[in-house]
Design a protein that fits this description.
Layout: E1 3-5, H1 19-28, E2 31-36, H2 41-53, E3 58-62, H3 73-86, E4 91-98, H4 106-123, E5 127-132, H5 139-150, E6 157-159, H6 166-174, E7 177-181, E8 204-206, H7 228-239, H8 243-257, H9 260-263
Parallel strand pairs: 1-2, 2-3, 3-4, 4-5, 5-6, 6-7, 7-8
Helix pairs in contact: 3-4, 7-8
Bound molecules: zinc ion.
Residues 7, 9, 37, 94, 130, 209 line the site of zinc ion (ZN).
Length: 268
């Protein structure tokens, strides 16, 4: 079995004291790759340190997270652009819209999101997208509207932490994107039990979003990539198929998104 965690902030300070054992634990659960979304300038050094030490397992993305968009957005984006020209990142991320916390920089969030979607198309990289609703605004719908309007050739990627309805799942698929399924799938009122049975396995990838959103039975505790196994098992249960099928398909789906350089790191 081979699994891929398509979204984990393993450079987070919550792993500062046990990074090595956390990675060993992931290895013991057959997690072959861990994809690391960047947040802002302050997270680059820690992420690249892991990417340098584990070049085959810990794959870095580059992007500005919407919750980190504020009055410094121009300088942040200049750094992202410079980094994209300098290194071989596996994706642009995480980017998107966050209406949950602070609405004061929404216009700048849209500007940063559109700018980074264009860079992804130029660099031929997939995107890892964060769409968190709030203040009576649906971030998924507004992100999908923007992607549709831009119609960037070849643009693809993942709606990370997908928690939408079946109609939204269908819209994401129609736009050519995968659904990133994480710990919420294991939550009693997560809502994905009504969606996943009706969505084909070819549209799903797995993620933890570590250190956040730990699956049951670790809900509320620190999350880590090894728990991908619990999420895969939950998808298998909801779809009434076996774990091996979930692993095989979601890994193939994730691999298909990767730039060749990184896809070649995986055993065939
Ligand atoms: Zn994230």
């Amino acid at each position: 079995m081979m699994l891929i965690d398509t979204h984990a902030h393993i450079y987070d300070s919550q792993f500062a004291n046990d990074q090595e054992s956390m990675l060993r634990h992931a290895d013991s659960q057959q997690i072959s790759q861990i994809w690391m979304p960047n947040c802002a300038r302050e997270t680059i050094a820690g992420m690249m340190d892991l990417a340098d030490r584990y070049p085959e397992r810990c794959l870095p993305m580059m992007g500005l997270h919407p919750a980190y968009v504020n009055e410094t957005v121009e300088a942040e984006l200049a750094t992202v652009e410079d980094q994209l020209n300098r290194h071989a990142f596996m994706a642009v991320g995480e980017i998107g819209l966050d209406f949950y916390w602070d609405m004061s920089f929404v216009d700048r969030q849209f500007m940063a999101f559109e700018t980074q979607l264009r860079w992804a198309a130029i660099h031929k990289l997939p995107v890892s997208m964060h769409t968190r609703s709030g203040h009576d605004r649906n971030a998924f719908a507004e992100a999908a509207d923007l992607i549709e309007k831009l119609a960037l050739p070849g643009l693809t990627g993942i709606f990370h932490c997908f928690v939408g309805t079946l109609d939204e799942a269908k819209r994401a698929i129609q736009l050519g994107f995968k659904l990133g399924i994480g710990g919420v799938a294991t939550f009693k009122n997560g809502g994905l039990d009504k969606v996943l049975p009706h969505v084909g396995l070819e549209h799903l990838v797995l993620e933890t979003d570590a250190p956040y959103l730990a699956p049951v039975p670790y809900r509320g505790k620190r999350n880590e990539p090894a728990y991908i196994r619990l999420i895969a098992q939950r998808v298998a249960d909801l779809k009434q198929i076996n774990l091996d099928d979930v692993a095989r398909h979601t890994t193939a789906n994730a691999r298909a998104l990767l730039p060749t350089l990184y896809a070649n790191l995986l055993p065939s």
